[in-house]
Amino acid sequence: MAVVAFNSPDRYRSEVLVAPSAQSNSSGLSGLASQLGGVASLAGVSLGGGGSDKTIEALETLKSKDFLVDFIEKYQLKILLMGIDAWDIVKDEAIYSDEYDANTNQWKRDVKFPKKNEPSLYEVSDYFLKHNLSINTVAETGYTVIEVEHFSPKLAKEIAENLVLEVNMKIREKDIAVSQNTLKFLNDALEKTNINELKQQIFTLMEQQLQTQMLAEVKEDYVFKVIDMPYEAEERFAPNRILMCILGLLLGSLLGFLISLTRFVAKEAQRAEV
How far apart are CA 239 and CA 5, in angstroms? Predict the structure, then answer.
């Protein structure tokens, strides 16, 4: 156990604390929903969603395969997540595993079908979600802690920063695209109707969609605003070598006691037979 403790590579954790970003256009939409429900439903417009819905969507997006695959590919994290065994803190460079040859840029994994020598982005995203990423929401405050673990404290910090940046961008771009499509539909509907009451409802919906677009285009912290920025950890998060040594000592003592007890019982049994 002591040998394992001292041979285990250091891991560092960086965390970012985020809060739901106030959605200025979310207030009053539930009232509009009852008045404009028919037109809104026809146009595919959701008037009941507020900031909490966006937060839930963003949290689920952070854990989704599609988002993580795009994220890992964009920031070229495949090798840094699955191709290294440790990190040289002094030189600030990766120590590659036996499964990846940095000189030839070739993977040498011994895996069974359907996996391949080079891990797919989906496999890397699954690995990242299980071994590097942790997301916890505090029920009392609604704040969320996004934690990233890695052999490199610098990379852990950068990944945590970029996760918040990318999820804000993704939800913002999606809302802008939906709003643009909705406005196009509403413009077409406006040209086809002569009913004044229906026109007024359409104008109200268009105003709401324009507000959504304006907010999305100018607000960088669209879903999450950062309360506490991630930092580059100076102390390792794991392994806890002292604890591992203590556990090793306890287990060794217990094993020694059991062996001695077994021998004692065996000797007593032999004496009884004599």
Answer: 7
Cβ(208)–Cβ(30) under 8 Å?
A: no
What tokens does 1 get? 């156990």
5 belongs to a structural domain: no
Supply the range of the domain harboring residue 234: 10-238
pLDDT at 47 > cutoff 80: no
Does one domain contain both 225 and 254?
A: no
77 and 155 co-located in one domain: yes
| Distance (Å, whole) CA 58 – CA 13 | 22
pTM of the model: 0.77
Q: Mean pLDDT, the chain, as a whole number?
A: 84
- pLDDT of 29 strictly over 50: no
Angstrom distance (rounded) from CA 223 to CA 53: 10
Sheet containing 12-20: give its strands across. Answer: 133-137, 144-150, 12-20, 224-228
Q: Is residue 2 part of a domain?
A: no
pLDDT the model gives residue 28: 39
* 136 and 250 in a common domain: no
Quick one: 195 and 274 in the same domain? Answer: no
In angstroms, the CA 45 to CA 41 distance is 6
- State the CB neighbour count (10 A cutoff) for residue 54: 20
Q: Residue 197 falls within a domain, yes or no?
A: yes
What's the rounded mean pLDDT across residues 176-201? Answer: 90
pLDDT tens across 69-118, in order?
Answer: 999 999 999 999 999 999 999 999 999 999 999 999 999 999 999 999 99
Has residue 241 got a pLDDT over 90?
no
148 with 273, same domain? no
Return phi, psi of residue 45, to 5°.
-95, 130
Q: Is residue 168 part of a domain?
A: yes
